[in-house]
Amino acid sequence: MEKDNKNEEVETEGQIDQKPDEQEKSMFMNIKLLFLKEEKGWEVGYSNLAENNIMFEFVHNGETVQNWTETATVSFYSYQSTVFPSANAYAKEVMKNVEDTVKSGDGDINVNFMQESEEETILEFMVTDTKGYDNQHELQRVFLGENGIWYLHYVTKDNVPMDDNQRDKWLEYLKNVEVESGVGGLEI
Length: 188
What we know:
By secondary structure, the chain is of the alpha+beta class.
């Protein structure tokens, strides 16, 4: 059970559009997300703050995590909760699962690992013509932090493939995400 805006307990199990309250924000590691300052109209559509894992999904105002045109996600997995020793190992496992899912829907996927190292991996992929899925173009950055693995991604269903300007802009946003350990709020 959690508290809603009126401080009443509400059932949230199975709820997808769960937005962070102030207490959750204060528990979150300080993250600087430049796209929230430069791009208007984004809001938190979902958050999940567990003991060893954190996730914030951003969507455009008026959209939901079930019905979106663009989404950006920030996830953190503590070293205690993950078996992956490196950013590259984590990224490759995620992509293996995505590829298996797309292929099971008779779809096409094109993956491009742009930068690969133990500390940081940047990649993109496009999914097209997949039964049960919208076409989408996704950019990802996975990197090692002080206490765990950070997984960032931006996805569009509006512009597949992304034009060069949009792609370059979002790669810069992902590359320039800064995280600081300690108590603080989500910096927007």
